[in-house]
């Protein structure tokens, strides 16, 4: 289990990426998959910092990552990211149309492409909890296909 | 000229008709503003071609991709061209998944970008 309590600052991201890479390397993921997992975690945390906490550094984020036996296609990992943001409307959490090329709105597409299952829900006591799962045999797919395949909820990307 | 944040180093070389920006490190939410500022600042003196060398970039996230999309629009407003060079496989995959490989002109080397 990799468990971290983070502040809502972009400065934490490089260290988190390093820790996720190290953890994933020690749990049997390929180099390619480690890159995918790291990117999904990074995008998810960036979204919380940017859209949830509006770049204010005093927010709290709880992160945990662990191996599970019941990922969508068997053994895999589960990442949970829990924030304490107020007034988040899950129905408005969505990425842009990929054909409408402009800065922004890519984060959720990347998350869904890198991960096999992505779910957002309101957390008890306030805030949002994101759960992402990826099986050991899963590799990233085209982002538009991922949008159709994974999870029911969407979050605005942070490009 | 060199500019740097903790995770990204930016080397800027100006030639007669080319602005060459070489990035070293990671382009993420933290370092993207520095890159955006560097490009905007340098482009106050526009030139026909902006080449961004990504050969030493090990990681890019959606913030970095978004910054490059914005840079391309910015450069094209003054009739310039932005060319990306030498994307490492992991970086290229982010562009592919984001459907941006066709949007950008991508070359294998700086020399190729000079001629493109």
Q: Can you describe this structure?
A:
- The complex is a heterodimer of chains A (159) and B (116).
- Chain A has 159 residues and is an alpha+beta fold.
- Chain A has 4 helices and 5 strands; from the N terminus they run βααββαββα.
- In chain A, strands 1-2-3-5-4 form a 5-stranded antiparallel beta sheet, covered by helices on one side.
- In chain A, a hairpin with a 2-residue loop joins strand 2 and strand 3.
- Chain B has 116 residues and is α/β, with parallel strands linked by helices.
- Chain B has helices at 32-42, 62-76, 89-97, 110-115; strands spanning 2-4, 8-14, 18-27, 49-60, 81-85, 105-107.
- In chain B, helix 1 packs parallel to helix 2 (62-76).
- The relative contact order of chain B is 0.16.
Please name the defining characteristics of this protein.
heterodimer, A: 159 residues, alpha+beta, five-stranded antiparallel sheet, 4 helices, 5 strands, globular, disordered C terminus, B: 116 residues, alpha/beta, six-stranded mixed sheet, 35% helix, 34% strand
Which sequence of strands runs across the widest sheet of chain B? Answer: 1-2-3-4-5-6
How many strand segments of chain A?
5
Radius of gyration of chain A equals 14 Å
- First-to-last CA distance of chain B: 25 Å
For the record, give the distance between the C-alpha atoms at the N and C termini of chain A, rounded to a whole number. Answer: 29 Å
Task: Provide the fold topology.
The complex is a heterodimer of chains A (159) and B (116).
Chain A: E1 2-7, H1 13-25, H2 31-52, E2 60-71, E3 74-83, H3 107-114, E4 117-122, E5 128-135, H4 143-149
Antiparallel strand pairs in A: 1-2, 2-3, 3-5, 4-5
Helix pairs in contact in A: 1-2, 2-3, 3-4
Chain B: E1 2-4, E2 8-14, E3 18-27, H1 32-42, E4 49-60, H2 62-76, E5 81-85, H3 89-97, E6 105-107, H4 110-115
Parallel strand pairs in B: 3-4, 4-5, 5-6
Antiparallel strand pairs in B: 1-2, 2-3
Helix pairs in contact in B: 1-2
